[in-house]
Each structure stands twice: as C-alpha cells, then as structure tokens.
Design goal:
The chain has 585 residues and is an alpha/beta fold. Helices cover 38% and strands 19% of the residues. The strands form three sheets. The protein has an eight-stranded parallel barrel, surrounded by eight helices. A three-stranded antiparallel sheet has the order 9-10-11. A three-stranded antiparallel sheet has the order 12-13-14, with helices on both faces. Strand 10 and strand 11 form a beta hairpin. The structure holds acetyl coenzyme *A, 3-methyl-2-oxobutanoic acid and magnesium ion. The site of magnesium ion has 7 residues, from loops. InterPro entries: 2-isopropylmalate_synth_dimer, AIPM/Hcit_synth_CS, Aldolase_TIM, IPM_Synthase, LeuA-like_post-cat, LeuA_allosteric_dom_sf, LeuA_N_DRE-TIM, PYR_CT. Keywords: Acyltransferase, Amino-acid biosynthesis, Branched-chain amino acid biosynthesis, Cytoplasm, Leucine biosynthesis, Magnesium, Metal-binding, Transferase. It catalyses: 3-methyl-2-oxobutanoate + acetyl-CoA + H2O = (2S)-2-isopropylmalate + CoA + H(+). It is found in: Cytoplasm.
Length: 585
Amino acid sequence: MSQVTSHSPVVEPKVKPKFEAFDFRKYQPFAFAPNLPDRTWPNKTIEKAPTWASVDLRDGNQALIDPMTIEQKMQFFKLLVEVGFKEIEIGFPSAAQVEFDFARKLIEENHIPDDVTIQVLVQAREHLIERTFEALQGVRRAVVHVYNSTSKVQRDKVYAKDLEEIKEIAIKGAKMLQDHAAKHPDTEWVFQYSPESFSQTEPDYAVQVVNAVNEVWKPEEGQQVIINLPATVESSMPNVYADQVEYFCRHVKNREHIIVSLHTHNDRGSAVAAAELGVLAGADRIEGTLLGNGERTGNMDIMIMAMNLYSQGVDPELDLSDMSRIVQIVSECNNLPVHPRHPYVGELVFTAFSGSHQDAIKKSLDYNEKNSEATQNIWDVAYLPIDPAHIGRSYQDVVRINSQSGKGGVAYILQRNYGFNLPRWMQIDFSRVVQQKAEDVARELKNEEILEAFESTYLQNSGYELLDHNINNKGGEVEFNGQMTLNGETIDISGHGNGPLSSFIDGVARHTGKQLHIINYSEHAISPEFTYGEEDEAQSDKTNAKAAAYIQLNVDGEIYSGIGTHTSTVSAMLKGALSALSQAF
Ligand SMILES: CC(=O)SCCNC(=O)CCNC(=O)[C@H](O)C(C)(C)COP(=O)(O)OP(=O)(O)OC[C@H]1O[C@@H](n2cnc3c(N)ncnc32)[C@H](O)[C@@H]1OP(=O)(O)O
Ligand SMILES: CC(C)C(=O)C(=O)O
Ligand SMILES: [Mg+2]
C-alpha cells in the first residue's frame, strides 16, 4: 500500500531572516511518496531511447508571452519532423482559433508525414472535446489526450470535489473520447489520459483513476492507450518520482497493454533526472520540449535527455547533429534566449577558461590523436563529455584565454590556430607573458591578441640580422663564418661547435665577450594548412612545410627565449637565436 506522511513544523529558524515572510515552517515535506522498499529501478540502466513526444507546440506554446503564430508553429513542426519526432503534440485546438486552424492546415495541406502522429490536448469537457474532434477531421492517425487533475490540492481547493467525483470527471472524459472517435472510424485513434498532477496525487488513487479510465477504453481489447504521468509541478526529488512511476507500473491493471508516458516539469531543476529515473522505473515514452521551454521553469528538455543517452553510447533516435540550427529555430519561435551554459547547446559549454582544465583537455586530445588505434576512436576526454564536433561545434570553442588560464590552454590556441607546437619550457615561458597581459586588460584575450603577444615576445629581432654566412662541417666539427648586424652594428663572427647553432652562438660569444649557453632547443615543421609568417623568397613553393625553431639561451646568467620560422630548419634555428639575442643585448 502507498503511504502518505505528514509532518508538523516545530523547528525554530537558526538564522533570523531579513524578511519575516521567508519562513521555511510554512512548507511541509513531500507527502505523496509510495512505500516501495523493494524498488527495482536503481539497479537498471537505460539501454534504448524511449519513444519521444514533443509538446513544444502545446505546453511550450502555452507558456510563451506571445504564443506562436501559425507560421511559427509550422516552422517548428517541420523542424520537429526533421529532428525525427514521430509523435508531436500540435496544440489545444479547442482553446483558440489559431490552435484549431493549425490542426486544419496540417491535415488539409498534407504536412503530416506518414510515420508521424499528431497529438492534441483537451480537458474532460464535452464542448471542448467536440471541437477537438472537429479540428481533427480527416486525419489519418491522431492521439487525443484528455486530462483532469487528480491531486489533493486541486480536488480540495480548485474543484471542491471528493475522490469519487474527480474520478467521475476522468471516466466521463474517457467516454466522450470514445463516443466521438466512434463517429470517425476512418481515423486510427490513440487515446491518451493524464491524471494531471499525478506526482502530487496519492499513488493508490492515481492507479484507481487510471484503471477506471481503462475500464472504459479497454486497452486489453486492442484500443491503443497512452497513460501519461505528469509531474505537473515538480515537488520532490527525482528518486521519489521514480518510486511513484514504478509503483504505478506495478499496480495498474493491464500494464502490458498500455504505453506509460512521463511528462516532467522543472520546478526543482531535476526534470531531466526525473524522466531518466522514470524510464528506469518502467516508462516507455517521454514528453518534453526542445531546450526545455514550458510552464514556469519549463518542461523537461528532450535535447538534454537525448544527448545524455548519446554521451553514454545509446542511440538517441533523434538527429541533433545540426544543433545550432535547431537552437536558432527554437529560440526564434519561442522568442526566448538560450543561456550560455545551457547543457550541450550553450555558447560556453565546451569552453574551458581555467588552466588545469585546458591542460587536461589538450593532453587528452593529443593523447587520442597519437593513439587513435589503441583508443579505437572512443571519446574519452577530460572535461568534455562529448566531442563538440559531433554537434557542429568547433574546437575554437574549447579553450578560451583569460587570467584564469594556464600554459596548456595558451599552447592549445597556438597549436590549433597557428601551427606552433610549443615545447613545455616555452609554454611555461609564454604563459607568464599571457597571464600578465590578461591581468593588465582584465578580460578575455582574443586569439589574435595572443598571437600578437607571441610575435612581439619571441619573433622580433629588429637590429639583429644574419647577413652572409657559411657553415662547414669538418669531420663532425662545425665551423660558422659570417656577418651579422648586432644592435644595428655590422660585425664579423666566426665560431666552432658540434652543429650550426652551437657554432653560431660560439661566434657571437667570442665577439661580444658574453657567457652564452644554449639551454633548450626544439623544432618542428609547421603544417602547410597554417600560412603563418612571410614566405621564403628563395622557395616560393607553398606546399613546403615551414619549420619553427624554439631556442632558449643563458646570456650572462639570464634566460632568454626566441623563435624562428623559415622553410629551412637551419635558418629557422638561427633566426630563433637572433630573436633571443635581441632581447639579451
Ligand atoms: C498542466 C497543463 O498544462 S493543462 C493544460 C493547460 N492549458 C490551457 O489551459 C491552455 C488552453 N486552455 C484554455 O484556453 C482555456 O482553459 C479553455 C479555452 C480550454 C477553457 O476556457 P474556459 O472554460 O473559459 O475557462 P477555464 O479554463 O478557466 O475553465 C475552467 C473550468 O474548467 C474546469 N476544468 C479545468 N480543467 C478541466 C479538465 N481538465 N477537465 C474537466 N474540467 C476542467 C474547471 O474546473 C473550471 O470549471 P468551472 O467553470 O466550473 O469553475
Ligand atoms: C496536461 C498535462 C500533461 C500537462 O501538461 C502537465 O500536467 O504538466
Ligand atoms: Mg505540462
């Protein structure tokens, strides 16, 4: 048996509130949880998408400041069809002319694909039901969805009716649907009943009302029936709702002949969680809206629930790949903005500003790139639950730089956008520069600003130019002879070493009398897709990858870093050394 508990408030507030009206003692713990100690849903997983039913054009629409026009409804309907919805609640035809006309337009102009069923909502009232069937004349297949509230608060305060009288409204509504449907035998009718405010109804009573409705409809004899269990106002934790759903599924008669549908709202912010747990608890079908528009805090967001399944390797059976187009149409039709942190779709949801997140994302992506065979291309990236590219988002979104960022993020920007694959020591060096700049401007730095800082720090060597030079390798010992401008002055240098760089540095050290040591050196080819830097005059073949060379020098005990780019590795290396020297002298 279900259990309804009541508590009396006795506790005094520990903190004196500023406004006396702010008084938790005016609320009571949720009272409609069934007693279900042997619940089974916690041990289950979702392995298949439920049947989705969009209620954007009804529940979403009824919550808008300005309800949609017919044109907007049509645009939205077409989007829902493209996305793959097979059941679409198109409105409340008896409520307004535009609602009625939209149903007629869809039917008369043949806008409903063969595999899509439209659904309409109506109260359990004769004249409204009559008008509803009028709106549906000629439709191939339709779900007629009738509801009446069964919750204690509505019974006592809105309807002032007892349990039997409220059940009678449902029974009468069920009969009215049956009678009207019988007059239109050419249509395939599906009946749907919602004990509105199911979650605030005593669980046994909800079962009783639904059994009474089904005694009229007789699903066991072939009538298609959907029983929808709304959390019209979300008023408990989602596990409690799941208990209610499991309790209902276990106790309702003819469970195997009915489709159990859920319809959750988001008053406590857990509408998606409630729907998910409700599926574990036995539901077959989920009603909701794209982006979660709906009464008050909204309906449950199908986009989030579908993407949650997707991110667990379950086919959501909806095509959400062109996410930005979906978001654009939905937010235009609803005339509502999308929060930048809205799960999966918000502008910032794939962006990491903070250093350690950026570092982890970069390392994960680099690892996956290098080990694609071993990882079998399975997505497993720190801080990114799905691959942004799967829903049309670019990697540009992933890392953005401000004063919270670190070396990994800055390196990511230079690598992804400009082809510079900074060695770790250079990442550390440059991140200090970026950090300072971000703090100075006290805002996010654009990619171009990061490149600008990079160039002005490491790629400038004005006044320091290598003129003529030649490098000879004599049995492993390299000799460098040449001319260079140093601080504007032209000088001859010659030096020895085990390579071009060390012999050049030796030559500069001899000439200037400074203590010069190479601390770090690294180089790589810049992929041809990056057209960074000036073309080498000698080689105009643009398919040649440019080289980038990173050099760190110790000059009289101080550390200086420089970078050079060139089509020839040796020239890139010497340019990098000149850049470091230009900072030192
Ligand atoms: C949880 C939900 O989202 S439910 C859907 C809510 N959506 C809407 O209501 C939008 C569309 N509705 C409307 O435009 C209007 O309500 C209409 C046109 C359908 C009906 O309008 P009206 O009859 O003028 O007014 P109203 O909605 O206030 O009617 C309330 C009456 O219907 C009764 N009623 C309300 N819902 C139901 C129901 N589901 N079944 C039976 N009777 C109902 C009320 O008890 C009340 O009765 P009373 O007149 O004896 O006091
Ligand atoms: C009419 C029903 C399904 C509804 O929208 C609700 O209860 O939230
Ligand atoms: Mg609703």
